[in-house]
Every structure is written in structure tokens, then in C-alpha cells.
Amino acid sequence: MPNTHLLISWYRRSYRPLPWRQTTDPYLIWISEIILQQTRVNQGNPYYHRFIERFPTVIALASASEADVMMQWQGLGYYSRARNLHKAAQTIVAKYNGQIPETSAELITLSGIGPYTANAVASIAFKEPSPAIDGNVMRVIARYFSADDVINSRGLKKLCDNTVRAMMKDHHPGDVNQALMELGAMICRPTTPLCNECPIQPGCSSFRTGSQAVYPVPAKRAKPKNRYFVYLVLTSNNLSSQDIILKKRTKGDIWQGLYDFPLIETTNVPTDSDVYKSSLWTSLLPDFQPALSHATYLKHQLTHQTLHCWFIRQTADLIPDGIDNAEYLKIPIDLLHHYPFPRLIQRYFDQKQIKSHADN
Ligand code: SF4
């Protein structure tokens, strides 16, 4: 087992003084853990500050509108995290009188909280001896023992759980969890681990055999799926202002609750005739011939999907009847900053120099 004394004293000397490390407030720890789930520390840090400034307590978060929560999350990706935070905050207010539950078993019943987050919050804020096993911790333990189980496998998780639990016997559980995460992030890095600075180097099997690059054993990755989007960016010129048509993304697909544009999705690379024959096009713009060769193309990578996107911008004197309905929304273009957009749509606005952010 790794030497916990050495690990904790290294952590106390070397940890990065990130804001969520200076607190035992479960709300702040919870928010930071959710932000950092799929986001790097440098990118997540400003979002964390903005988020807790806007929603300083669980009650403030619970009483905010979903659009407001999504606005604060805009650009971070994995938007279900924001929706779940909001939902969980409402449950905490309704069921726990606004007090964050203290046990991992209760925390895990809240929306968006899995075993890792439940254990991280319970151990750091409430000293519950619950191992929080993330990718960093798995890498450290897999290398320390030269474990042959593949990353994320049940076998490796079990090994991590048993090891970390044993390490928590005589130490603050939150410190053990955080020290292992920090060691994985800063020293036992995915490539080029800094073994000569590692406090648990004595006893590390991979160091002894020079096999750090072999562990953790990777799982086979599925190839990202290609998707083909043709967006219709429809604007109209009024005398006083320009309008634009947005579409709110609904359940069952990426970006739920965010806004994009009227969309035609095809199963392969689209042709002009795919667009022209689509029901969206025939109902909205039967008199215009689309030309994909003049469209703006953006490729956008998500974890499991590669999006190939064409943006056809069409200006009409009048927005066709029926477009401003439950499905679509017609708004003045200078109010775009009131709506949350996925990163892809922000990229389009940036490229076209369309202002979609509020001035700070
Ligand atoms: S000695 Fe190297 S491989 Fe082993 S745990 Fe430390 S950094 Fe990782």
C-alpha cells in the first residue's frame, strides 16, 4: 500500500491553492467537483468563480431560472451537468430544507451526482471515509501495483477502492482523496510522470520495472460517430432592428436547453437537393435555392460525436409566417446575449462577428 504519511505531507507542501481547496463548505465543493468533471482546472476556475458569485448558496441556485443557470454554464460543455445541478439544488431545498445531505448514500440520490462526486463531497466536507476514484486516482493505483485490469474496469475500481479505504484508516479521508487526485494530476501524469518527485515512489511497481507507460491498461475506444447538420440562419431586416430565428434544443439529444438554429440533419454529407427537399426548407423558403458551396462549414468535436456543420445564412425581408411558433423563436439580433448557446454556435457567431455576449 502507498505510504499515506509521505503522500499527505507531500500534499500539504505542494498542493495548488485552488479556491475550493480552502473550504469545507459542501456546496462549494459540490459545484467545483461538477465543474471539474470534464473540464481542466484552468478552464474551470473562472466558471467556478462566476457561478458561485451568481448563485452563492444552494437556495440561490434552486430559485434561479434554468436559462440563467445555463447562461452561467455557457461554453463549458456537457450541459446536462448544469441542468442536474439545478435540479439537485431544488431537491435539496424541498427535501433537506436547504441543507446538503452529509452522507454519500444520500448525496448519490441527487441528480447528476455519481459515486465519485458523492464520495468526494462526503469525505472532504463531512470526513466520511469514502474513496473518490477518478481517472487520476486510477492511474496512480494502476501504476503503483502494475495492475493488469483495464482502466474503468470493475477489477481496477475494486483495487482502488480497497487501497484508498485502507489509506484512510488513520488520516482525514478528504485529504487522502485530494492528495491522490493531486498526485495524479501533477506528478503521476498520463505521459512523462515525474517519478523522481513522487512521494510514493518507494514501493511503486511500475517505477521499479520502468513500465509506467504500460499502465493503466487502456480500454478500447469506440470511434466517434459522424453527424451532418445543415443550419438555416434566417435573419430579417426590419426598419428598426434585425431579427433572427433560434430553436431551443429539446430532450433526447445533445445540448438540451440551449439554443441553435432551424436544423436539417442528414445521414451522409448533405447535397443541395437534400436541403431543398427537406420539409424545413420547403415550408420556410420554397423560393430560395440553397447553395451549400456558399455555406459556412464548421467541424465540431464532441467526445463521442464529430459534427460536420454547414450554416446557410439567408436574409429575408419578412420572416415567413409560422416560423415564430412553439418550436422556433424570433428575436432581435441584439438580444442574442440573453440566450445560452453551445460552443459550436458561439464559434459561428464569433466567426461572423455577430455579438452574442453581454458586455462585462
Ligand atoms: S513513482 Fe511514478 S509511476 Fe509510480 S506512482 Fe509515482 S509518479 Fe506514478
Keywords:
15 helices; elongated; 360 residues; alpha+beta; binds iron/sulfur cluster; Nucleoside Triphosphate Pyrophosphohydrolase; 14% strand
Question: Summary?
Answer:
By secondary structure, this protein is an alpha+beta fold. The chain has helices at 4-14, 26-36, 41-54, 58-63, 66-73, 80-96, 104-107, 115-126, 135-145, 154-167, 173-186, 205-209, 272-277, 279-284, 343-351, and strands spanning 225-237, 242-248, 259-260, 263-266, 296-301, 305-316, 328-332. It has two domains: 4-214, Endonuclease III, domain 1, CATH 1.10.340; 225-351, Nucleoside Triphosphate Pyrophosphohydrolase (Alpha-Beta Complex), CATH 3.90.79.10.
Question: Could you characterize the architecture of this molecule?
Answer:
With 360 residues, the chain is of the alpha+beta class. The chain has 2 domains: 4-214, Hypothetical protein, domain 2 (Endonuclease III, domain 1, Orthogonal Bundle), CATH 1.10.340.30; 225-351, Nucleoside Triphosphate Pyrophosphohydrolase. Helix content is 41%, strand content 14%. It has helices at 4-14, 26-36, 41-54, 58-63, 66-73, 80-96, 104-107, 115-126, 135-145, 154-167, 173-186, 205-209, 272-277, 279-284, 343-351; strands spanning 225-237, 242-248, 259-260, 263-266, 296-301, 305-316, 328-332. Strands 1, 2, 3, 4, 5, 6 and 7 form a 7-stranded mixed sheet that branches. 36% of the residues are buried. Bound molecules: iron/sulfur cluster. Iron/sulfur cluster (SF4) binds next to helix 9 and helix 12.
What's the helix and strand layout?
Blueprint: H1 4-14, H2 26-36, H3 41-54, H4 58-63, H5 66-73, H6 80-96, H7 104-107, H8 115-126, H9 135-145, H10 154-167, H11 173-186, H12 205-209, E1 225-237, E2 242-248, E3 259-260, E4 263-266, H13 272-277, H14 279-284, E5 296-301, E6 305-316, E7 328-332, H15 343-351
Parallel strand pairs: 1-6
Antiparallel strand pairs: 1-2, 1-4, 2-3, 2-7, 5-6
Helix pairs in contact: 1-11, 2-3, 2-8, 8-11, 9-10, 9-11
The protein binds iron/sulfur cluster.
Iron/sulfur cluster (SF4) is lined by residues 140, 143-144, 187-188, 193, 195, 198, 200-201, 204, 206-207, 212.
